[in-house]
Write a structure and sequence with these properties.
Layout lengths: L1 H8 L4 E4 L4 E6 L3 H11 L8 E3 L3 H7 L6 H8 L4 E6 L6 H4 L4 E5 L4 H9 L3 E2 L14 H8 L5 E2 L12 E4 L6 E4 L5 H8 L4 E2 L6 H4 L14 E4 L13 E7 L9 E6 L4 H15 L5 E5 L6 H13 L4
Parallel strand pairs: 1-7, 3-5, 4-8, 9-10, 11-14, 12-13, 12-14
Antiparallel strand pairs: 1-2, 2-6, 3-6, 4-5, 8-9
Bound molecules: threonylcarbamoyladenylate (TXA) and magnesium ion.
């Protein structure tokens, strides 16, 4: 922790664990660090970064508080919810891609401890090469970015496994820009008003690249299915099948994996990227089963559909 805090205060970029995925973090006050984040990831400069805060003083330093912030923060912070609000001038155009809004969240765990010790907000995208599967273990970061960054803080596997829900508070109606661990239903219950969902690719990279049609992708081609009986009957040994839960019986000669013993969606989300990271490039093709389409299942299927998409 001491080394991490020192490195960040000196303007280095460090990979840190959050409850969602690992982030690639740099001080919001060090433009060089922010530029390094973009270049290490190979991320286009038009994609804005999320600013992570450790407390409400840090929040007030970067964003103009929305009246709905208190009720949302009470329910979901620290946690996997990112809020888009009007930004303060101190947040550079580099971070927000020139927008007058900033995406902010208060993460859990070691990342928050770093923020509290450093006393400076940190900009951090997921710590993966742009477009590739998100990292949910330190080894994923090491494998893909290890030779480009100096430090990775190993906090073990991420509890949630998929990126935060993004809620835009600057639109006439609160609008979810990226589905995630906090469901639309949960947001509506807390806000007491309808919440729109606008995650379609027509918003393009300018709004949120997590919304690009192709994103979170393994190198091995991926095909989605709902019902296992729809799978081709002859699967070669170079093909992997990933199910939501342990099947009642399976033929040992097919390479079958499951994301949760009993199909619990929290576990499916937690294991999704880790399993794909593990089996990527070991097969010629991966068939993966979708989740039931409600609540967290919608956020999981969103990742799966983008991972399987062939159009950029
Ligand atoms: O769980 C997470 O959110 C992780 C951890 C590290 O916090 N971070 C993450 O960051 O997923 P990233 O950069 O991979 O995705 C951030 C998304 C992008 O799709 C970006 O376009 C969107 O947030 N975003 C950032 N600022 C925005 C803004 N002002 N308005 C709309 N979308 C914004
Ligand atoms: Mg990302």
């Amino acid at each position: 922790m001491d080394r991490v805090v020192r490195s960040l205060s000196e303007g280095d970029v460090v990979a840190l664990p959050t409850e969602t995925v690992y982030g690639l973090a740099g001080s919001i006050f060090q433009d060089d660090a922010i530029r390094t984040i973009f270049s290490v990831k190979g991320r286009p400069l038009i994609d804005p970064l999320i600013v992570h805060v450790g407390d409400f003083d840090q929040l007030d330093g970067v964003a103009i508080r929305d009246p709905r912030l208190d009720v949302l923060a009470n329910a979901f912070w620290p946690g996997p919810l990112t809020l888009v609000m009007k930004k303060r001038p101190v947040v550079s155009d580099l971070i927000t891609a020139g927008k007058d809004t900033v995406a902010v969240r208060m993460p859990q765990g070691l990342f928050r401890q770093v923020l509290q010790r450093l006393q400076v907000p940190l900009a951090a995208p997921s710590a993966n090469p742009f477009g590739y599967l998100s990292p949910t273990e330190a080894i994923h970061v090491e494998r893909h970015l290890g030779n480009r960054i100096g430090l990775i803080l190993d906090g073990g596997p991420c509890e949630r496994g998929i990126e935060s829900t993004i809620l835009d508070l600057t639109t006439p109606m609160p609008t979810v820009l990226r589905l995630g661990p906090v469901s639309v239903e949960a947001l509506q219950a807390v806000l007491g008003v309808p919440v729109l969902t606008k995650t379609s690719e027509c918003h393009g990279a300018q709004t949120a690249p997590g919304m690009l049609k192709k994103h979170y992708s393994p190198q091995t081609p991926l095909t989605l299915f709902d019902d296992p009986s729809s799978l081709p009957s002859i699967l070669t040994e170079r093909v992997a099948v990933v199910l939501q839960q342990r099947p009642p019986s399976f033929t040992p000669e097919t390479h079958t994996y499951w994301l949760s013993e009993q199909g619990k969606l929290e576990e499916v989300a937690q294991n999704l990227f880790a399993l794909l990271q593990k089996i990527d490039r070991k097969y010629t093709h991966i068939f993966i089963q979708q989740s039931p389409p409600s609540g967290l299942g919608l956020a999981i299927n969103d990742r799966l559909q983008r991972a399987a998409s062939k159009t950029p």
